[in-house]
C-alpha cells in the first residue's frame, strides 16, 4: 500500500476466504471473480445490509464481470431477498449523464477564457485554478440533483429507465434482462 491507502498500480488485490485482502504483482490475477464475488456478497454485503433492510429487498448493483452466472450466488441472493442486477449501472450513472457533460463544456469555456487573458495555454501551474473554476460551474447542487432526477434515483421514478436501455452488454452477457426496474417498481 502507498500513502493513499491503495495498492500501487502494478498490484492487484486478492481476497481469499476469511483472510485479509492481499496484494499481488502477478499480471494474470483477476481483481474479482465469481468466488470472490460470492464470498463478498455472503460475508460482507448481506451481513452489513440485512439488518437495515429488514424484510425489504436489498438491491445490489454490479457490473463488469460474470459472477452473476454462478448458480450458488444467484441461489443465495434469491434465498436472502437480494435483488442482484448486473446490467443496469450504465443507466444509473447520473454524474456521467449530467455533471460530466457540464464539466466538459465548462472546461472548454475556462480554457478559452484563461488563454484569452494570459495569451498562452494552460500548463501544470495553471491547471488546478482553471480546472477548479470549471468544476465549480459543473458540479453545482442543482446539477447534482438533476443527475439523480435524470436517472430516476431521486426523486424515485422507475419510468425514466426504458427497456431499451437495459439491453445486456455484448462482451460479458447473455440475453438476460436486468431486474433493476422490476425491483424499483415493486417497491412503489
Short summary:
Residues 38-148 form the DDE-1 domain. With 188 residues, the protein is mainly alpha-helical. Helix content is 46%, strand content 7%.
> What strand line-up does the widest sheet have?
1-2
* Structural class by SSE content: mainly alpha
Low-pLDDT segments: 1-27, 172-188
Estimate the global geometry from the Cα principal axes: elongated
Can you give the mean pLDDT?
75
State which percent range the strand residues make up.
Answer: 5-15%
Organism: Psilocybe cyanescens
InterPro entries: DDE_SF_endonuclease_dom
Domain DDE-1: 38-148
Region (Disordered): 1-25
Secondary structure layout:
Blueprint (H helix, E strand, L loop, with lengths): L11 E3 L7 E3 L9 H20 L4 E4 L9 H9 L2 E4 L8 H25 L5 H15 L2 H10 L29 H8 L1
Parallel strand pairs: 3-4
Antiparallel strand pairs: 1-2
Helix pairs in contact: 1-2, 3-4, 3-5
Describe it.
The chain has 188 residues and is mainly alpha-helical. Among the domains are: 56-88, no CATH class; 91-151, no CATH class. Helices cover 46% and strands 7% of the residues. The protein is built from six helices and four strands. The strands form two sheets. It has a two-stranded antiparallel ribbon with strand order 1-2. A two-stranded parallel sheet has the order 3-4. The longest helix has 25 residues, at 94-118. It is elongated. The N and C termini lie far apart (44 Å). Residues 38-148 form the DDE-1 domain. InterPro entries: DDE_SF_endonuclease_dom. Residues 1-25 are annotated as: Disordered. This is DDE-1 domain-containing protein. Pfam families: DDE_1 (PF03184).
Amino acid at each position: 500500500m502507498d500513502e493513499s491507502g491503495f495498492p500501487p498500480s502494478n498490484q492487484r488485490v486478492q481476497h481469499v476466504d476469511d483472510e485479509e485482502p492481499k496484494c499481488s504483482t502477478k499480471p494474470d490475477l483477476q481483481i474479482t471473480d465469481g468466488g470472490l464475488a460470492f464470498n463478498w456478497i455472503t460475508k460482507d454485503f448481506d451481513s452489513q445490509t440485512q439488518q437495515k433492510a429488514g424484510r425489504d429487498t436489498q438491491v445490489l448493483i454490479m457490473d463488469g464481470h460474470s459472477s452473476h452466472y454462478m448458480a450458488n450466488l444467484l441461489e443465495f441472493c434469491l434465498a436472502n431477498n437480494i435483488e442482484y442486477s448486473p446490467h443496469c449501472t450504465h443507466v444509473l450513472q447520473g454524474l456521467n449523464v449530467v455533471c460530466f457533460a457540464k464539466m466538459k463544456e465548462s472546461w472548454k469555456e475556462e480554457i478559452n477564457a484563461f488563454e484569452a487573458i494570459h495569451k498562452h495555454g494552460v500548463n501544470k501551474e495553471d491547471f488546478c485554478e482553471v480546472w477548479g473554476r470549471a468544476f465549480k460551474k459543473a458540479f453545482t447542487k442543482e446539477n447534482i440533483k438533476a443527475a439523480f432526477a435524470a436517472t430516476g434515483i431521486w426523486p424515485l421514478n422507475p419510468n425514466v429507465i426504458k427497456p431499451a436501455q437495459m439491453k445486456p452488454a455484448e462482451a460479458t452477457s447473455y440475453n438476460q434482462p436486468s431486474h433493476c426496474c422490476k425491483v424499483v417498481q415493486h417497491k412503489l
